[in-house]
Amino acid sequence: MTSSQMELDAARLLLSKMGIAPADLLTEPVERPQVPTFTEYIPVVARAVSAATARSYSSYWRRLEAVWGSRRLDEPSPSEIKQLAEESRAQAVVRRNSRGGRNAAENFIAAVRCLYRHAVADRILTEAENPALKVAKPRRLPSPRRALADHELIEINAAAAETGDDPYLDTLLLRLHTETACRRGGALGLRRRDLEQTQCLVYLREKDGTSRFQPVSPTLMRLLVSHADERGATHPDGPLLRYRTGEPITKRRYDYLWERIGRHVPSVHTQNISTHWLRHTTLTWVERRFGYGVAHAYAGHSDAGDSATVTYVKASLHDVATALAALTGEPHPLAHRPAPGGAS
């Protein structure tokens, strides 16, 4: 290799590390906006993301602003970001379900990456200048959640029905989550107009803007309609689930419910069992009996990022209704009818 060839290779390597393509040297330089400070740019991103994302990252952005508020986005190094992530890990509030601050560190890095993604999209920085991409997230540990055993479900429902200031509401919540495997946000987002009584469907709006019709048993549909009528959820767009006073419930009702159940069912307290465990329970039951495709649809999971196999085993609403009918022991209007002669 000649010395000139070696020099060219070295130049290409240097340009690559700087995020510059050789063709860029042949064009007029694009004028880039002035790099803002964290104090200037955080509000811009907070207004651009969804309300849920802003809530999730707000505490980490406040910390960034407190520590680096006057610094420009192009000033911190990957090592400095990693140092702040480790400080977030060390300062994480210790709870029964804490995992050594891993979630705090992971969420901090995710919040920083969100800021820099927007900065790259706004052409404030180039992809190569994004320091957050050079900081690895902590390895995520396996979730401790699992499917509940039958006797655990019985104990949980009994505690909800026999204690507390509103057993009717609490048992309705447990049944709703057990039948639909919906997330807490899906239940809190239910409106009166989301009840499709003829076909026994509820319309769920869940995280990342996803939405779907989910089958429910005729019994649960009657309970939801009765609850709405008795507690004043008459406006089509008004929240469905309410206290006796007519006020809509919030996530605090779930906190109170599981804290109370934990006083009567020790495993709920020691294992930090929550509403999401009901989702695990139902989806595990469906997968074991009806296969992965039906469980995938039952969960309301998006196909994005999943194996291409999902395209070929995608289940229909009728498949989900059939699984629900088997789970509840009640016929459902959309469930598949047995073929004549008993053939499946």
From TrEMBL:
Signal sequence annotation: none
CDD domains xref list: DNA_BRE_C
Domain Tyr recombinase: 142-325
Keywords: DNA recombination, DNA-binding
Any one of the GO BP annotations: DNA recombination
InterPro entries for the chain: DNA_brk_join_enz, Integrase-like_cat_sf, Integrase_catalytic, Integrase_recombinase_N, Tyrosine_recombinase_XerCD
MF (Gene Ontology): DNA binding
PROSITE patterns reported for this sequence: TYR_RECOMBINASE
Matches recorded under Pfam families: Phage_integrase (PF00589)
Family classification: Belongs to the 'phage' integrase family.
Record PANTHER family: INTEGRASE_RECOMBINASE PROTEIN MJ0367-RELATED, PHAGE INTEGRASE-RELATED
Protein name: Site-specific integrase
